[in-house]
């Protein structure tokens, strides 16, 4: 609870990541994930182009940072853009759409525009802001964002609504996702890197 409260004390803002800001997410991706697990810049660009509404950035409002907060990272989204000049990208969640109840290598490496499930690829927070509850706050914001997308779907087209959110996690991060409502399905058949993955699911209202 203390970590969550610390995150609440940070002046955070959540915005969709634009094409111009994708390289900034890549800089965090390769810093925080092992080389065997990190997405390539090309993959991140593809995901932003294919599903821009599923790429959410977490920004620190630098003009409201208190003296006891960590020093901002050098990721200034766009110093020439007044909308982002006071914002610092410190984390993000990126997904694509898939079909079915389980993730596979094939479904995770593509995007199905008509898919009814969200496949989360990365939940990443810059190291300077880790262990402050930012990931939990970001996940809650993301799930609310997805529910908002569902709420905006025309009532006459229920088939276009998202039904579930799927992800694979290492054993030591299962608690993080369970804490925001994800249920453990079991060990995943997906192999990526040396450590085993576990599949989890969150059911959206529809």
UniProtKB/TrEMBL annotation:
It holds the Pfam family Acetyltransf_1. GO terms for cellular component: cytoplasm. Keywords: Acyltransferase, Transferase. SUPFAM superfamilies: Acyl-CoA N-acyltransferases (Nat) (SSF55729). The keyword Repeat does not apply. The keyword Transferase applies. Residues 28-205 form the N-acetyltransferase domain. One of its GO terms (molecular function) is aralkylamine N-acetyltransferase activity. This is N-acetyltransferase domain-containing protein. It comes from Linnemannia gamsii.
């Amino acid at each position: 609870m203390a970590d969550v409260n610390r995150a609440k004390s940070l002046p955070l803002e959540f915005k969709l990541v634009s094409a111009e800001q994708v390289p900034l997410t890549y800089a965090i991706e390769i810093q925080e994930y092992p080389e065997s697990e990190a997405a390539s810049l090309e993959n991140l660009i593809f995901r932003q182009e294919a599903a821009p509404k599923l790429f959410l950035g977490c920004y620190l409002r630098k003009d409201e940072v208190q003296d006891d907060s960590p020093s901002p990272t050098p990721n200034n989204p766009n110093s020439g853009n007044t909308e982002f000049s006071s914002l610092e990208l410190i984390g993000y969640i990126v997904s694509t759409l898939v079909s079915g109840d389980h993730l596979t290598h094939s479904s995770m490496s593509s995007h199905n525009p008509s898919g009814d499930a969200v496949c989360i690829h990365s939940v990443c927070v810059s190291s300077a802001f880790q262990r402050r509850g930012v990931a939990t706050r970001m996940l809650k914001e993301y799930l609310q964002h997805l529910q908002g997308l569902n709420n905006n779907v025309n009532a006459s087209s229920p088939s276009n609504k998202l039904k579930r959110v799927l992800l694979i996690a290492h054993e030591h991060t299962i608690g993080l996702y369970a804490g925001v409502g994800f249920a453990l399905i079991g060990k995943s058949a997906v192999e990526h890197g040396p450590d085993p993955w576990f599949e989890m699911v969150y059911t959206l209202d529809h």
